[in-house]
Structure formats: structure tokens, C-alpha cells
Amino acid sequence: MDSNTNLSADKRAQILAGAAAVFAADGYEGASMARIALVAGVSKGTLYNHFDSKAALFTAYVGEKCDLYLAHVFDGTGHEGDPAEVLRGIGKRMMQMMLSDVGLAIYRVVIAEAAKFPDLARGFFESGPARAVGFMADWLAEETRRGRLAVPDPAFAAEQFFNLCQTRLVLRRKLEMLPDPPETDIEEVVEAAITMFLGTYRA
Amino acid sequence: MDSNTNLSADKRAQILAGAAAVFAADGYEGASMARIALVAGVSKGTLYNHFDSKAALFTAYVGEKCDLYLAHVFDGTGHEGDPAEVLRGIGKRMMQMMLSDVGLAIYRVVIAEAAKFPDLARGFFESGPARAVGFMADWLAEETRRGRLAVPDPAFAAEQFFNLCQTRLVLRRKLEMLPDPPETDIEEVVEAAITMFLGTYRA
Amino acid sequence: MDSNTNLSADKRAQILAGAAAVFAADGYEGASMARIALVAGVSKGTLYNHFDSKAALFTAYVGEKCDLYLAHVFDGTGHEGDPAEVLRGIGKRMMQMMLSDVGLAIYRVVIAEAAKFPDLARGFFESGPARAVGFMADWLAEETRRGRLAVPDPAFAAEQFFNLCQTRLVLRRKLEMLPDPPETDIEEVVEAAITMFLGTYRA
Amino acid sequence: MDSNTNLSADKRAQILAGAAAVFAADGYEGASMARIALVAGVSKGTLYNHFDSKAALFTAYVGEKCDLYLAHVFDGTGHEGDPAEVLRGIGKRMMQMMLSDVGLAIYRVVIAEAAKFPDLARGFFESGPARAVGFMADWLAEETRRGRLAVPDPAFAAEQFFNLCQTRLVLRRKLEMLPDPPETDIEEVVEAAITMFLGTYRA
DNA sequence: AATGAATGAGTTTTCATTCAT
DNA sequence: CATGAATGAAAACTCATTCAT
């Protein structure tokens, strides 16, 4: 029975992998269940044995990506040491994620379908941005207690920092004007964000 | 003869108005020509007498919005007086536009279809963000010459300011988590952006 | 008023010229009134001022071609002199017509639409094949009276001769397997037809 | 599993039967997929599960008719005995085929669409006329070797014979002027063709 | 649980025809 | 009489979903 469960879970994962490829490439409306079945290597009927509808499959796809991809951006990130160094690590990881193919694909599809799938939009927000902001806000509060920084509203400041880090690169990438942003550009932008951020919030 | 021209232009405008409503509500793929015809109050055939295809209609819709809406955000904006005051005007106008229903709808649909319509994405960028950044960068350069500010890279600084202004409100609005952002919130966020911006770039 | 009539007749001829080009290229179903209007250089409305419907325009086109093109294949053909020589002239003219672009186009379109436009099919038959057969049958009857030939059923014999002349070339041309049949091939085939024909019907 | 295969093949055959009826009645352009689905007793979707497009269905229809209908006209035809008798059998079978409803329908539609489907036209030629000519040419060559006939160019002579056999009946049938040609007419025409043919080619 | 054939409503697009100017 | 915008029915084709095997 365990093997049975595994088999079933495997099929589910197999379908989700196909769905991920197709939804990322074609968007929600542009994706067809036939194509997902083809890419996943199963029949159309099997799709419906595992997911009630196209919308349910889409929801599961986005939910999975949010859990497995966005959610772990900061897992294991140390927040000890010099504030500038910590900000550098946070900023770079965040930007690498936002500029990656997968990160971009989820963002695109969630923004496009936010009106149709509001729960998904909220789920995306909470597994991704909200989690990152929460993590960083906690750290800012601690540094403020320690006297190294002076941040009156840590959550707001965290959001400011993430917005600053997106300068120049993120919008252009979303508009397909920047196929492959180089590492050095990210570092430059993050450095400028750190300078401005500490210029305001250093104790 | 004038009436003839007006009639034709009127129909075109009528169709574009219907298209705007439907594309904004349903996105490109989600919109159907039948529904656009219904909302515009014309027959499907008339749609095709004025626009060659759905893609052409979509292109005309986005192009029009970029020209008539985004492009005029800064028309007539004075850039005299105290830097903080000028930044306040720029920031507020920009945020009002980005958070408006029309601004949001264009952003959503352009981001979603950037891969399929790269020219549109570039057109959006150039009529909207690039124009705003260019306007602000010119002003920053002038203030630097005057000795009131010290901005080494005006275009980059302008993008930083716009990103700062988006804190807290814009992403939540895109995700349908903030149906109607109040004026006071915008002012608060812009004020914080001005503080941080001048903390770095004041002479 | 005469000028008026002429103007009107000119427009009619202009429309028919456009219709001829389009029907020949695209067939009846494949032709569109919009394209005919374009090629004829008039508006769609003008088409309907001169012809009641697409079917009427088609009928007029085929009728005109039958009258002006098929009907005059034998005008001015002398039927004096050596029977072989007369047969040679008749056979060659007939084959040149059947293998020409215009002749082929009419045949194709009349055959394709014979079920839908039976009157047209009969009209085609009578202006074209029947006329040729009648002309030749008269000549065969006269030669029989003169004692140079012995043809018991002149109309039947005439049809036999035309069928013989089509050997090898006509079907292949109808099937687009012979874009441009050379003159010498026609002569060869006609010669063989004459030999066989006279082998049977010479007095 | 056999039943499965049969089910699928049955549906295909069922669709082809419907397509045959509609294409024969309306031609390629005049036929609609909706009507074919209706006549075949399946849904439009099922049509597209079995054939990629209208053109593919048409190609399959013509190909099937050429294979199953034209190709077997001469199967089992004995070519022993008196030449006149053999010619009589060949001529009658050929004419019965050309004057039949199915034979006429394929001819009509292939001629009409030869420009659009050149491969089909060639396929028609090779399964039908070319095969008949080849068969008869072989027999003529053998009779020439045996000394009963004297045919210098057997393929050309075969085509002459088939053209002669079409006298009076075939064109009129194609033009819908002869709904149902009686057997006796065919015999008469074929007899005349044999007379003329042997008048030239008898040893 | 897996399959894939069948469905029919829905999509974009074309077209013959009409009519106000 | 010429125009060309407007129409709506019909075309080819797609797709999410169901269901018998």
C-alpha cells in the first residue's frame, strides 16, 4: 500500500512537472490540458484523475512553486555579522530569485491571473514577499535592539530595501528587455541600495 | 465629409473603448472578440473592418493607453522650488498613476504578454517608465549643477526614487489585496522615500 | 445619354475583367466579392449595382467567355482543300484552345459547378464543344456528298476526332502535370488522330 | 483489444463515408466540416481527432477512392482471346467507371482542386488513368509480339483508345446533361472505337 | 488508477449582402 | 450611380471535460 501511495504521488509530481513547464511557457489561458498531458507523459484522463480541473491544477502548480521555491530563499541564511554584509546577502539572494526564469514565470502568471484567482495571489504574497519581509524585519528589529541600527518601522524598512534592490534590472527583465542580467549588475545595484538604506537607518 | 471622418473615427474610438474594458478585465487571452463586439456595441464584422486581427486590436489598445495615459503623467509638472516639494509632486503623481485602475490594467496585460508582444513591452516601457525617469533625471542633473543636490548618476537615482515610492502599496495592489489605496497612505510612503532619497543625495 | 450608357458598359466590362481574373485563379467558391472589387478597381457596392449576386456575376463571366472565347475558335476557318489539311487546322485550333490558360480555367470552373449551375454547363456546352462539333459535322457531311469521305454519322465522327486529338496532353494539363505543352507535341498528336480518322472514314 | 482497433477503424471509415457523400455533392470548398460531421453522425471534435484538417480529410477521401475504386477496375480482367473481345471488355469497364456517380465525383473534385492539391492530382492520375493505360499497353505490346496487332507505341495507342471510348457520353455526363447513360449507348460507342482502333492497328 | 476517443460550446476570422451618404 | 462601413451567419478549428473500457 505504501508503494501504491508512492506511485500515486509520483504521478502527481510527474503531472505537476509537466504543468510547470507549460504554464511557465504559455501562461494560464495559453496552456492547454492536452499539451500538459503530452509534456507530462500521461493521458488527458489521468490529469483529471488527479486534479479536478484546469484551475485546480494551476492552483496546485502555483502553490507548489511558492512552497518549494520562494519559501526557501532565506532558509539557512545567517544573520550574524556586519549589517552591510547581512544586507548584501539578503539583497543578492532576493534579486537572483526575482530575476530567475522560474521566479519570473510565477510572478508573471500570478499577476496576470490575480483577479481570477485572488487566493493564489494571496498565497504567492505570503509564501514569497511576506516571508522575506518578515525574516528581514525580525533581523532589523534585533539590530535596532542591539543599537547597531535605528529602524522605527522594521517591516516598512524591509520593503523599502527590497524595492531599492529592484532598481534598473527587475522591470526591464519583466518586459523581456534583459534576457540574462549579469551577476555584476546585481551587485552594483544592491551595493547602492545598501548605501542608501544605511544612510537612513544606521544608528 | 468632416462628418464622414468623424463617423469613422468615432467607431474606431467606440471599438477601442470596448476593447479597453474587456482587455483590462480579462487579459489578452481571456478576452474574446465576441465579447469586445458586444461591449463596444458593434458587430464582430465591424471589429474586423477596423482592425486586422485580435493582436492588432490589442496592440492599438495598449499603444493608445501608453500614448494618452502614461505619457502625460508629467506634462505641465513644474520643477521649480524646493527639491523636497518637487519630489513630493513627482512621487505622488507617479503613484496615483501606478495604482489607478487603468495603469494597473495596462501593467498587468503588458507583463503577461511581454513574451508574445515584445514590441508592445518596449513601447510601454518607453512611453511610461522611461519617460518619467528621463524627466526626473534631467531635473536631478540640473539641481546637481545648481549645487542643491549631489547626484552622480541621475538616471539611476531617478529609478531608485520610483522604486522607493512603490513600497508597501504597489505589489499589494497588483495582487488584488488593496482595492482602493487611500491618498494618505500614498503621502506617507512618498514622504519616507523623500527622506531616504535626500539623506543620500542632498548636497 | 449615349455617353452614360457607354460609361455604364465600361464599368460592367471593368467588373467582368476583374471577375475573370479572380474566378479563373480561385474558382467559384474560392473567389470573394471583396477581392473581385479590388482587382476590378471598384467598390463592393458597385458590384451589386451591376450584378444581383455572386452567382449572377459568375454566370455573366462564364457566359461572356463562352461567347467571346470559345465561340470564335472556328470563325474564319476555311474548309476548302485537302481533307487532311482541313483536319489539321481544326485539330490544332481546338487543342490550342483547350490547352490555353483561359480555356482550361473555364473548363475547370464549369465542371466543378455543373451541379450547382446546370444552365451554365449547358451554355458552355453549346457555345463551345457543340458549336465546334456542328461546324465540323457540316464539313464532314459536305465532303461525304462530294465523295471524298464516307462518314455515316457526321456529328458522332466529329466528336470522335476531337476526343482523339486530346490524347496524352489534355488530361495531364487539367491535372497540372503539364504546365506548358509545346506546339510540336500538339502537332504529333493531331497527326496521329488524322491518320486514324482517315483510316476509317476515307471514301 | 481487437475490438478497440475495430472501433477506431470503424469511426474512421464512418467519417470517410460521410466525407465522401459531402465532398461528392458539394466539392471541396463547398463542403463544410459541420455538414460532414452531421452526415457522418459524429461531432466536429471527433473529425479533428481523426484528421488534422479539412485538407487532410479531403486527401484521405480522394486517396481512398483512388485506391479502392479506380485501382481495381481491371483486376481480374482476362486478356486472352480475340483482340476485339478484349478491347470490348476493357472499354466497357472503363466507361462504366467514368460514368458512375463515384467516378464522376472524384474526377470533378480532383480537377477543380488540382492547382491547390497537386499531389492529389498526381495520385489520382497514377491510381486511375495511368494504371489502366499501363495494363492495356502491356497487352498491346504482347499482341504485337504475337503478330495479331501492329502497335508501334502501345502507351499512346492505349490512350487513344480510351479517348475514343469517351465520345458522346463522357463530356455530357460531366456537364450534368446525361443523368443516367444507358448500357446500350456505352456499347455502341465502344463498338465504334474498336472499329476505328483496329482499322489502324490490326496487323 | 489509466487510457484516449468523443463531445459540443467556444474561438478567431471571412464573406456575401445591404444601405445611408 | 458609386461608395465603403456595417452586418450576422457561417467557416475552420480548439479545448476543457466526460466516460466506457
Describe the structure.
- Chain A is mainly α.
- Chain A folds into two domains: 2-51, Homeodomain-like (Arc Repressor Mutant, subunit A, Orthogonal Bundle); 69-201, Tetracycline Repressor, domain 2.
- Chain A is built from eleven helices and no strands.
- Chain A has helices spanning 2-30, 33-40, 44-50, 54-70, 83-99, 101-112, 118-127, 129-146, 154-165, 170-174, 183-201.
- The longest helix of chain A is centred in the N-terminal third of the chain and has 29 residues, at 2-30.
- The mean pLDDT of chain A is 90.
- Chain A binds chain B through residues 27-30, 108-116, 118, 121-122, 124-125, 129, 156, 159-160, 163-164, 166-168, 171-172, 174-177, 192-193, 195-197, 199-200, and chain B through 25, 27, 29-30, 108-112, 114-115, 118, 121-122, 124-125, 129, 156, 159-160, 163-164, 166-168, 171-172, 174-177, 192-193, 195-197, 199-200.
- The structure holds a DNA duplex (21 and 21 nucleotides).
List its salient traits.
homotetramer; 203 residues; mainly alpha; Arc Repressor Mutant, subunit A; Tetracycline Repressor, domain 2; 2 domains; 76% helix; elongated; DNA-binding
H/E topology pattern of chain A:
HHHHHHHHHHH
Radius of gyration of chain A: 20 Å
| The named CATH superfamily of the largest domain in chain A | Tetracycline Repressor, domain 2
- Please tell me the overall pLDDT of chain A: 90
Oligomerization state of this entry? homotetramer
- Please give the count of helices of chain A: 11
Tally of individual domains of chain A: 2
Largest sheet of chain A: none
Structural class of the secondary structure composition of chain A?
mainly alpha
Overall, the morphology of chain A is elongated
